[in-house]
Amino acid sequence: MANNIIVASTSVPFAEYVRKNVEQLTRMEPIVLASDLEDLKEKIKRYQARLVFLESNFVDIATPYMMAVLKGKNKKVRFAIFSFEKVVSEEVERFYNLGAAGYLNYRDGLESCLKGYRKLLEGKDYFPDELEETGASCHFADYRLGELKQQELTMQDRELICLMSRGKSAEEISGLLHLTYETVKNYKSRIYKKCGIKNSVHLLLFALYMGLISSEEILKAAFGEGGELMTKGVYGDSEE
């Protein structure tokens, strides 16, 4: 069965609410729910989904590499983020540059969200009005083309940059992405060569400039949960 829509959320009430709203606009097209990563991946493949509404709290899913994994061979599927939290421009910018087709926030009101659903169902992009100007999201940096394309970074390259910029070691990354330690080291060397990066400080500045990580994430990685400066294992090049 083709052309299905999927609503993915860890909260069943949220998912049901979004499904009902979308059903108001398309009664003929099947809408299915997904509750976790594996469930979502399987349903994208089984139902040949064309559009996935992904709750913003699915942070681990909303990354370039993970989106590519979820898509698999179904390159036509599009992802749109929905949230019930207060909209933050940096978050919208992040999702946009991760490849999201839209961002809907229920704090803007139901009518605004329904407007967004209509556009997305028509195959258009949609982002909050305060971040749009004459139909284009030009109030925030757009890294979808430009330098990322020039550097020829793959989805996995960008994923690794995000993880390394958050202070993750090669060993931690190998566990998170199910890759061998040596494979991660090789990918890291390849990224440094592509981007003209010589050390982890350059990598951090590159990630900030390209909008792959926020300053808040860097501070969290550097100081840890307790607010004390982490002096070992964060942004060091001892593993090279």
Task: Describe this structure as you would to a colleague.
The protein is of the alpha/beta class and 240 residues long. The protein has 2 domains: 5-131, 3-Layer(aba) Sandwich (Rossmann fold), CATH 3.40.50; 146-223, Winged helix-like DNA-binding domain superfamily/Winged helix DNA-binding domain (Arc Repressor Mutant, subunit A, Orthogonal Bundle), CATH 1.10.10. 46% of the residues lie in helices and 10% in strands. The protein has helices spanning 12-23, 37-47, 64-71, 89-97, 110-121, 146-150, 155-165, 170-177, 181-195, 200-209, 215-223, and strands at 5-8, 31-34, 51-55, 78-83, 102-105. Helix 3 packs antiparallel against helix 7, helix 7 (155-165) packs across helix 10 (200-209) and helix 8 (170-177) packs across helix 9. 31% of the residues are buried.
Features:
Arc Repressor Mutant, subunit A; 240 residues; five-stranded parallel sheet; 11 helices; 5 strands; alpha/beta; Rossmann fold
Broad structural category? alpha/beta
Number of helices: 11
The overall number of domains is 2
Task: Output the strand order for the largest sheet.
Answer: 2-1-3-4-5
The CATH architecture of the largest domain can be given as: 3-Layer(aba) Sandwich
Stretches where pLDDT falls below 50 for ≥5 residues?
Answer: 133-138, 226-236
Oligomer designation: single chain
CATH class of the largest domain: Alpha Beta
Within CATH, the superfamily of the largest domain carries the name Response regulator
Helix content: 40-55%
- Name the shape in a single word: globular
Structural Rg = 19 Å
CATH topology of the largest domain: Rossmann fold
Provide the β-strand percentage band. 5-15%
Q: Give a count of the beta strands, DSSP E runs of length 2 or more.
A: 5
Mean pLDDT: 76
- Termini distance? 49 Å
